[in-house]
User: Which sequence fits this backbone?
């Protein structure tokens, strides 16, 4: 158990969040077409920062829809619906960020592909964890 102020949290929760964050960051870097973004006269650090922001926003949306509630025993339908809800909220939050951070030559298709890949990878990962548990 890890004590955060007066709240005791299981260490497996932080492990779960760290694994999700690493997976989502890898998915963002792979699906965002970083080569296309680099050719649009962006600094080299900007696509990586954008991938990090996308991952953090999606992690927050997963938390918002109780996908980090370790005491629940969700069915695969429940996990899928919660991931779709998180995808919808993440899309609403990330479209303005994408519009401000990326040059006008870039397409929204990269953002959409990344978010759909986030949802698919998260659902598959969660189902695998539930099968192991």
Assistant:
């Amino acid at each position: 158990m890890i004590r955060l102020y007066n709240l005791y949290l299981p260490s497996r929760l932080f492990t779960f969040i760290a694994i999700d964050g690493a997976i989502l960051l890898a998915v963002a870097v792979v699906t965002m077409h970083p080569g296309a973004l680099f050719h649009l006269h962006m600094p080299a650090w900007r696509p990586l920062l954008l991938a990090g922001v996308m991952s953090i926003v999606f992690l927050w949306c997963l938390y918002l829809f109780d996908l980090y509630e370790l005491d629940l025993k969700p069915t695969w339908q429940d996990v899928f619906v919660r991931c779709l809800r998180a995808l919808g909220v993440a899309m609403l939050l990330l479209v303005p960020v994408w519009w401000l951070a990326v040059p006008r030559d870039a397409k929204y298709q990269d953002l959409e592909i990344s978010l759909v890949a986030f949802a698919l990878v998260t659902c598959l990962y969660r189902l695998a964890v539930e099968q192991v548990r």
